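Model it.
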Amino acid sequence: MPMSDTPRTAFEPVYARYRERVRASFARQGAMATLGARLADVAPGYCAIDLVPAPAVSQQHGYVHAGVVAAIVDSAGGYAGYTLFPEDASVLTVEFKLNLLAPAHGERVVAEGFVVKCGRTLTVTRGEVHAVRGGRRTLCALMQQTLMTMRGKADAPAA
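Modeled.
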């Protein structure tokens, strides 16, 4: 189900079936399945992943662990970039920086990735993580990420 506030971007995908490709790739991510993360929305240059907090992904204070926050926003940024990649390419994160601004604590946590610049080899994204409680969103983390377009390399098949 798309998020109601999906941003509209100026990016045009070069591969018409980008949504199906992102969904299939996400389904092959064992890490996201282990965390209980769900692909919430995909649009050109945008991706949202959400997570219902649970004890298995929390730290000692009951907040969603920073490593889990990093994992879901890394994937959201990566898939935002992947929406704009050519058909014969896959995606790989080469770097990201994460600022943790508030505890990730709520009914759900939403990580959103936004493409800033899509180049032939490198793509820069930004990410935001919000905790949602009682319909209110609290900004928990900001990310800046660099992705590499891996031309001629498909995702590995499901194990």
